[in-house]
Design brief:
9 helices, globular, six-stranded antiparallel β-sheet, Aminopeptidase i, Domain 2, alpha+beta, 419 residues, Aminopeptidase, 2 domains
Length: 419
């Protein structure tokens, strides 16, 4: 696949995936189209040699794998489906001062200031009881700009350009309407009706997130950049998804996209949970075969990396400062916040060199902390040799992030180059 087609597909995937639930559904549809067979964790598995499979958990995490059976040296790619956002509280409606607004919580390490004055929509999962007494789930996406968080005018905040702080409880409630007639349950039923869910006896619970309605786009004089929400980490999800869809059944490969990385990964569908280990043990029920697979495989933990910001270069170690559109980034940390070691780095460098694809190194400044990834979690839980790589990004955890239009395609080619 050439870079143009790759990036066009990426833009579409970003726009269609406002929540982890939607991202997982879209990846599942891609796997179906590529001939992967859906598995259910609640059923007995009868895996057939030479087939390809996928399985989901919580509708927000997904694993896809080939099954050549005798080949155990898997190339695994790990990413995460979640991104920092504003999540709706269970009883969100606040009616005061002439407007209706929603109470929200910050999910993950959110950069709050960019959320002001943006056209916001709402998406996620709703659980309900139908007339048969069954509890069902449905995904909704309003798509329309429903809300906005207006800034306080500079006339009323003379320190706005000097000391702008944001209170998570009081300052970031999106406003929806001036009508006092608004009812949250009616709103949810209306959204459900748009996805043909009409049999709703009672609404139970929802997991809904606000998102920016501005579409992903190519930006720059020569389309140098890709600007979008949720690049961290749907960018890596797309690379991993496309990589495993591009190989045949004879190549041992696995892709996992886990939820809840931005809040520590400690959940049933997070990387600290059992999802990957459970799946691998069912693939290789014999313990010796399982351990052979673990010790001969490589996990590539793919997450975003901080590109050196041209306006804030002092925030980087000068010798380890990645540039946009200069290739994938190998992430190293002496305290094992990243799982890369000399063996896994060398393997990655060798493949990149054979393909003439550029790579870069990132080490955070010694007087600053670094972000976390699923790499060390997976390495610790499974004992698998792991490499942390990333794609250079500006404005990480903002409502709109920026990456290069060359780098993701380059990482895709490197992953396919692993033997």
């Amino acid at each position: 696949m050439d870079k143009k087609d790759f990036n066009e597909g990426l833009l579409g995937f970003l726009d269609a995936s406002p929540t982890p639930f939607h991202a997982t559904l879209n990846m599942s549809m891609m796997f179906e189209n590529a001939g992967f067979i859906k598995l259910n964790e609640e059923e007995k598995w009868e895996l057939e040699e030479g087939s390809k499979y996928y399985v989901t958990r919580n509708d927000s995490s997904v694993i896809a794998f080939t099954y050549p059976r005798d080949a155990k040296d898997y190339t695994m790619v790990g990413a995460h489906t979640d991104s920092p956002n504003l999540k709706l509280k269970p009883n969100p409606v606040i009616k005061e001062h002439g407007v209706v607004k929603f109470g929200v919580e910050s999910y993950g390490g959110l950069l709050l200031n960019p959320w002001f004055d943006r056209d916001l929509s709402l998406a996620g999962r709703v659980s309900y009881l139908n007339s048969k007494g069954e509890i069902k789930d449905a995904l909704i996406d309003a798509k329309k700009a429903l809300a906005i968080i207006p800034s306080l005018a500079i006339h009323l905040d003379e320190k706005a350009n000097k000391e702008r702080t944001v209170n998570n409880q009081t300052d970031i409630c999106p406003i929806l309407t001036t009508s006092d007639d608004f009812e949250f349950e009616e709103f949810l039923k209306w959204q459900l009706s748009k996805v043909d869910v009409l049999d709703v006896k009672e609404l139970y619970a929802s997991e809904l997130s606000f998102y920016d309605t501005q579409k992903a786009s190519l930006v720059g004089l020569s389309d140098d950049f890709i600007a979008s929400a949720r690049l961290d980490n749907l960018l890596s999800c797309y690379v991993g998804m496309l990589s495993i869809c591009s190989v045949d059944e004879s190549k041992p490969m696995l892709f996992i996209a886990s939820d809840h990385e931005e809040v520590g990964s400690e959940s049933t569908s997070g990387a600290s949970g059992s999802f990957l280990e459970n799946t691998l043990r069912r693939m290789f029920a014999d313990y010796d075969e399982y351990m052979q697979m673990i010790r001969t495989s490589t996990m590539i933990s793919a997450d975003n990396a901080h590109a050196i910001h041209p306006n804030f270069p002092s925030k980087h170690d000068a010798n380890h400062a990645p540039h946009i559109n200069k290739g994938s980034v190998v992430k190293v940390n002496a305290n094992q916040r990243y799982a890369s070691n000399s063996k896994t780095i060398s393997k990655f460098m060798s493949v990149a060199s054979e393909l003439n694809e550029p790579i870069q190194q990132f080490v955070t400044r010694s007087d600053m902390g670094c972000g976390s990834t699923i790499g060390p979690i997976t390495a610790t839980r499974l004992g698998i040799e792991t490499l942390d790589v990333g794609l250079p990004t500006f404005a990480m955890h903002s409502i709109r992030e920026l990456c290069g239009s060359d780098d993701a395609h380059s990482l895709y080619k490197i992953i396919l180059g692993f033997k």
